[in-house]
Design a protein that fits this description.
heterodimer, A: mainly alpha, 26 helices, 71% helix, B: mainly alpha, 0% strand
């Protein structure tokens, strides 16, 4: 039998050929810029369901989530309910964005926001968000792919060499085929991601000797060890008023209820990111939206995270990865290498290597599954950001008469630059890039008030949305590691660390954003702009407004959603610490035969699916519009030029640059 | 089918086989390598899932297996069967479990194909199709 390296290379070659094949095939169908940017708005529902799922999760879910569960125990595992939280963003905004995109031919969210708010500043901010999201985020994903191959080959392949080569293959198919290639390849990548996660977790399950054995080992851990072991089973309070990480560590772990809730906000940012909006614009119809949000993301991914990834992360403690537990004689076997205490480690790679000796083909397949999870997000974010730059900057400000050929060329050059910068950052400044990458979802969620304005609330004004967005971005920066580094570089030491009061940066950002947006909107309400915005809302009401019957249900639905947020990922989650038995009570005290918090998570996950099902299907927030949408009709007549006037500061800047 | 539908159908089929085929192949190899019945049979089950999914995809897109797909399917099946038989003959300690995996798996795949033919073309139609092949 060939050795594991041969299998790995063979699978990598097949995978690369598959990607390239779809890159070339897609390019044949991409005649116009619309083809290249949005797959001619013909992405089928099933492709959206698969690609949208992978894009909402990225490689983090495959590689990072189990490791974090290993590190922080069940308090972090609560974040698995993100599978229900992430689609909330999509449920609220995606269908309405799609309707506007279809009607007015928007290619990017920047175009939509600029037209709706009749201002160009918000377009520039969206481009900045897209760039700030894409470059570090893509870099992190690509660096992870290099690390994966280097680890699996025991360093025989250099990390950087692997990263550059693998990135080139991603760049190639995204560059050749555009959005169509990214989504076509993404369909398989998504299936491999889920299949790989389940399969790798089955390795853990088999090694542990089953679900019963794991729970017995957990009960022994709860009863045998000291207080630090019980922290493993509980959420350490609703909030802790600490100065922030780097200055003061919270007691019992960082994952307080407030941290979980605000981290959940950041996760919602994945479906409100500019890239996801563009994926929505590219869909043939919204047929796949509800299915993706409720059944695939909420149902399938929720189950994978709550059962499979949890078994992978928690189970590692009893398979030799945790020195303390092995020395206490509580481990079931010692097949995994010991992981460094308190340090983030890549647990998934250790599991993959477990199967390498007897089944090298599985090692190769799992490597491809992990690569798929990593590359699908990298390709999609890089490709959509290149489009955003071409449409919102190049065509809008630099070359308004650019034809399709020029626009495609510009997108391809931008794509190359994004990959290049991301790779250079990953090669030479990996720590800075990791910090920047952590900002990405927190940044994306700052688009919520602006999108809420477009989709729901006509009283949100241009000034409110723009200033709120800027305030949110600044707040995120100041409470994240990046902000601390920047201010230290400037000789200013902030009086707080990062994530003070155990509130994640996305939480601080959205708080400032909403406050500023509301106050400024109230101060600048009324006038001609309001009339202009009202036209959009009339259109949305006509095609996606609630019927009288649904209107009655509205308070009940929102009450249910808020109650779910409160008990599942909010302050009420701490009830789950001992609701089904004390953490250190042992199996006899555990009413569900598993740790109380785990049981709590599973119950609220099931209820969460019910909540999003109600929102997506019953309230028709993600179903097909009731009436046919006229495609690309004339712009709404409001008596003013919509988003065409270049602001003076941009005009002056461009004049100086050129 | 127009070009866009054709391309979508092709994407669905390649996605289906790339997923079920790769996992199926790995499980079958594990079954043979470790002499373990469960993974081996599970691998063949995944391949059958792939076939069933292909039939469903064809139904959704209102089409049938193309000539190339039929040729590829028969080719892969024949080569795999040949490898299995050769290994059975040549490898001295080819275990009973391995023989069981192979016989059950290949028979189940063949049965699926026959079932599909009968369900699609009827008994008489299927035999007539074979008759056409014989005349060729």
């Amino acid at each position: 039998m060939p050795d594991r390296m041969t299998w790995l290379y063979a699978f990598l070659a097949f995978y690369a050929v598959y990607c390239l094949y779809w890159g070339v095939t897609s390019s044949r169908g991409s005649k116009t810029a619309d083809d290249f940017f949005l797959a001619n708005r013909q992405i089928p529902a099933w492709v959206f369901v698969l690609t949208g799922t992978a894009l909402s999760l990225s490689g983090w879910i495959f590689m990072g989530h189990p490791s974090m569960v290993f590190l922080d125990g069940f308090q972090y595992a609560q974040c698995a309910l993100g599978a229900v939280v992430i689609p909330l963003g999509g449920i609220l905004f995606l269908k309405r964005q799609w309707l506007l995109g279809k009607r007015f031919g928007y290619v990017t969210p920047g175009q939509m926001l600029a037209a709706y708010f009749s201002g160009e500043s918000i377009r520039i901010v969206v481009v900045l968000i897209a760039l700030m999201f894409a470059i570090p985020f893509v870099g992190i994903q690509l660096a992870a792919s290099g690390q994966l191959i280097a680890s699996l080959t025991d360093g025989r392949v250099d990390r950087h060499a692997a990263m550059w080569i693998l990135s080139f293959s991603v760049f190639l198919y995204a560059c050749i085929g555009g959005m169509r290639a990214v989504t076509s390849v993404g369909a398989l990548q998504s299936m491999l991601m889920v299949g790989g996660m389940v399969a790798v977790s089955c390795v853990a399950y088999i090694e542990l000797g089953g679900f019963g054995a794991l729970n017995e080992a957990l009960a022994n851990l709860g009863t045998s060890l000291n207080v630090s072991a019980t922290n493993f089973f509980v959420i350490p309070g609703v909030i802790q008023f600490t100065e922030g990480l780097g200055k003061e560590m919270p007691v019992g772990g960082i994952w307080t209820a407030s941290m979980i809730l605000t981290y959940g906000f950041a996760l919602m940012g994945m479906q409100t990111s500019p890239a996801f909006s563009m994926l929505g614009f590219g869909c043939r119809d919204p047929k796949g939206f509800a299915a993706q949000q409720v059944w695939v993301l909420g149902g399938v991914i929720g189950m994978v995270l709550l059962f499979f990834a949890a078994i992978q992360g928690i189970g590692a403690h009893f398979l030799g990865a945790s020195k303390e537990i092995t020395e206490a004689g509580l481990a079931l076997s010692a097949v995994l290498p010991e992981q460094e205490a308190g340090k983030y480690t890549n647990l998934t790679v250790s599991y993959i290597k477990l199967v390498a000796a007897e089944n090298p083909w599985f090692m190769a397949l799992f490597a491809i599954c992990a690569l798929s999870a990593i590359q699908v997000a990298a390709a999609a974010f890089a490709s959509t950001t290149a489009t955003i730059f071409s449409v919102d900057i190049y065509k809008r400000f630099m070359h308004p008469t650019a034809d399709d050929r020029m626009l495609k060329l510009c997108a391809r050059i931008t794509l190359m630059l994004i990959f290049l910068i991301a790779l250079l950052l990953a090669t030479f400044t990996p720590v800075a890039q990791a910090h920047l990458g952590m900002l990405a979802p927190a940044f994306a969620v700052q688009l919520w008030p602006s999108l809420a304005g477009v989709c729901w609330f006509p009283w949100i004004t241009r000034q409110g949305a723009t200033l709120g967005l800027i305030a949110g971005l600044v707040a995120v920066m100041l409470v994240d590691p990046v902000g601390g580094s920047i201010t230290r570089f400037l000789g200013l030491d902030l009086p707080w660390g990062y994530w003070p009061w155990t509130i994640y940066s996305a939480g601080w950002g959205i708080l400032c954003n909403v406050l500023v947006c509301a106050v400024v909107s109230l101060a600048t309400r009324g006038g001609e702009d309001r009339q202009h915005r009202a036209n959009y809302h009339r259109f949305l009401q006509e095609h996606a407004g609630l019927t009288a019957e649904k209107h009655i249900m509205r308070p009940a639905v929102w009450a249910l959603t808020l109650a779910w947020l409160f008990f599942a990922i909010g302050p009420g989650a701490i009830i789950g610490n001992d609701f089904f038995g004390a953490p250190n009570g042992g199996l006899s005290a555990w009413k569900l035969g598993m740790p109380s918090l785990w049981g709590w998570q599973i119950i609220w996950w099931a209820l969460g699916i019910l909540v999003i099902w109600w929102l997506a299907y019953r309230m028709e927030l993600s179903t097909l519009p009731r009436t046919q949408v006229a495609e690309g009709g004339p712009a709404l007549s409001t008596g003013r030029r919509v988003g065409r006037k270049t602001p003076l500061w941009i005009k002056n800047f461009l004049r100086r640059v050129s | 089918m127009n070009a866009s539908h054709q391309s979508e159908h092709k994407l669905a089929v390649t996605t289906d086989w790339a997923f079920f085929g790769s996992f199926g192949l790995c499980f079958v190899l594990s079954g043979f390598n470790t002499g373990n019945l469960a993974p081996g049979l599970f691998g063949f089950t995944l391949v059958i899932f792939g076939f069933v999914a292909h039939v469903i995809i064809n139904h959704v897109f209102d089409t049938r297996f193309s000539d190339g797909q039929v040729a590829l399917g028969f080719g892969v099946y024949a080569v795999s069967l040949l490898i299995f038989v050769v290994r059975w003959i040549v490898v001295p300690h080819f275990s009973f479990v391995n023989i069981t995996i192979g016989l059950c798996g290949f028979t189940a795949l063949f049965a699926c194909f026959v079932f599909y033919m009968v369900a699609t073309h009827g008994v008489r139609g299927s035999i007539e199709l074979l008759d056409v092949l014989r005349k060729l």
